[in-house]
Structures are given as structure tokens and as C-alpha cells.
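Lab notebook, bench 4. The sequencing result for the construct came back, and we need a structural model before the next group meeting so we can plan mutations. Quick request posted to the team channel:

Model the 3D structure of this chain.
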Amino acid sequence: MNEPLAERIRPKNLEDYISQQHLVGDKGYLTQHIKRGIIPSLILWGPPGIGKTTLANIIATESKRPFYSLSAINSGVKDIRDVIEKAKNSGGLFTTQNPILFIDEIHRFSKSQQDSLLGAVEKGWVTLIGATTENPSFEVIPALLSRCQVYILNSFEKDDLIALLKRAIKEDVILSKKKIKLKETDALIRLSGGDARKLLNIFELLVSSENNEITITDDFVMERVQKNMARYDKTGEQHYDIISAFIKSIRGSDPNAAVYWLARMIEGGEDVKFIARRLLISASEDIGNANPTALIMANNTFQAVSIIGYPESRIILSQCAIYLANSPKSNASYEAIGKAQKLVQETGDLSIPLHLRNAPTKLMKDLDYGKDYKYSHSYKNNFVVQEFLPEEIANTKLYEPGNNTRENNFRELLKKRWEKYNY
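Done. Here's the predicted structure in C-alpha cell form:
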């Protein structure tokens, strides 16, 4: 049987679909839509191998609708129009049973290709389901995005991936005939990077080359995978492994490795905007205020390669990657927002101090909104000590400056101004 394991055990209904309970659980948004028989046009946004295509198929099956599928990698405007014409003939206007048009990797569609979908979505000829690993705010044109609901699919938890492996062992027509013992799973899960499809590909590669009795241990996995890496590197999953190596090389301040991984992506025909977006993220996450110019450099790179494209954009990407690799590093801003979000999740919507509230009306002023607020510019050096946090979390320090020239200067300034934060 040539069909890969991931296809053989692809879930056919919501009951078998692992994870994403916020969408497909008993009270999930999509579950409620399916029960009512009203499916809106939507974008499924999440990491690779998380089950976006599977979910689209299940929605079509559960809602008993015709299903049409296109991949943005190999479809043009003509293909889109042909499918829309078929969908129009099989569905109907003003019916809840209009066909579903699924477009995988919709972020790879050009503006003109996305424009060609607008009329069909607007007139109800099709219900569009797009799948993307990229932020749809950047990659889907506003007119189309405004007609779709965006649903975020979360990364698999470790337990989800183990459950997936156990189901494959139990239910797959080939694997169920073998005696497979899952003794250790850490190496498998680490190699998969949370990508269920990649996990199953690796797992199938391991067990298919062994006798009927197999014990999966971390050592067994690493030994076999090192020998057979090339076999599953060609499936397209390498795309995410190489960008990971690229960013980690920049984070590790190695311009030589960064340029090497960049060259691998360029030679593979990677989307220049995909690379440039990752440079933008790295400039803020890994460099931040240790060198704020890095973000400007990365943003200018994104703008430039969006206009120029290959082959010249390789030079711009190289310049930016080398600059970022050589920049001083700080993840202080990344750590600060992480701490702040965790604090918000733990403490909820705390009351905003009265002196910080906006007071556009007389009633609000009578209620002391804005009273006792000290206008910083009215004081020496444009600074005066006052409380800006809710009372319950007063004096909480969230930003810890990194150990670099610029942020050490920040620390000295903060130490002089804010005794309560203990800098």
C-alpha cells in the first residue's frame, strides 16, 4: 500500500479529531456552526501538521456539503474559476448547503488570485475554507479577510502526539499487525517539532524497516533516523527545519551559518517574504533594544524584497542576516511581554487606577476620573514618581534589561527613577 500512514489514519469525524477542543469540542465554535448547519467562510491558521486540511474535510463531511480542494502551490486563476463554476452548478444561491472550497496554503496566493475568489464568496456560491501557516492579517487581502472568520489552531501538546501514535498502532491496517511497544517517545516528539504529519512519517519509516516485534526507545529512534534522514527530508517538512536553523544561527551570532542556511533556502526557491518575516521577528525577539536599529534594518529588508524579488533580493537578505547575526543580543522585550501576559492571565481584568482613566465628560470628572494624575512633562526631566499599575500588582517588575551596553544604560536610568522595582 503506497498511501502514507498520515493519510491512512486521517480522522473522518470530529470524535476522532485530536486536540483543538476550543474549536471542535462539545462547546467549540465550529461544533456549534456544524450543528446549526451554517458554516461561515473561514481561515484556519496554525503551524504545519496540526490538522487544518483534515478539519476542512471533516467540516464538509459533517455538514454534508460538496467539497472542492485547491493547493495554492500549483493552482492559478484559471483553476480557481473552473472550480468556482463547478461549485456554482452543484450548489445554489441563498442555500445553507453551498459547496465548500478548500484552499491549502492560501498565503501563497497572489493578490490577483485572491481577488478571483471575492465574488464567489460574497455571492455565496462557495463557502471558502483557507489554510495557512502564516498570519492571515499579512497574507490575505483585506477584502477577502473581512468576509472570513479566522480560527487559530494551537500546537499539539505532548499527550496529543502520544495519543496519535497509539491510535496509529491500534487502528492502522499495517501497523496493527505488528507488535509495537512505545517505551520512550521523547526523541520522536522532539524530531517531529510538534508536526503530526512529520511524526507519523518518521514513525512509519522506523517501524516499516523492522521485524514484527519493535520496541521504540529514544536511542533506537535517533540511531535509525540519522541513517535514514534523507528519505523523509524530501517531503517538504525541511522547510521549517531550515528556517529554524537559520534563526538559531542568527540568535547564536554566527553569520557564516546564517548565510549558509539562507543559501539553502534561496537555492530551494523559498518565498523571500517568508524569510524576511522571520528576520523581522528575530530582530525584535533576539536583539530588541540591545540594538533597536536591527528592527529598522529588518523592516526595510522586508519592504525591499517585497518589491524586488529574486535573484537580487538574495543580496539584501544576506546583508540583513549578517547584520542581525553580528548585533548584540537581548530577549528582554520578549521575556517582558511573556511575563506580562502570564500576569494578566493569572489576575484577570484588574481595575484601572482612577488617576489613569480618561475623563472626557463632566460626570467622569465628578467621579474622580483622572484626578491626582501627574503630567510628566510638567516636572523636571519630564519625570515624576507615581503608580501606573493596578493596586493589586503594584511594584511588579516585568522588564529586566539585558546585559548589553544600551540596556545597561536603561538599567542605570531605571535604578535612579524607580526604587520600588529594585533594579
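Confidence is low (pLDDT under 50) at residues 92-96, 229-235.
Will bring this to the meeting.
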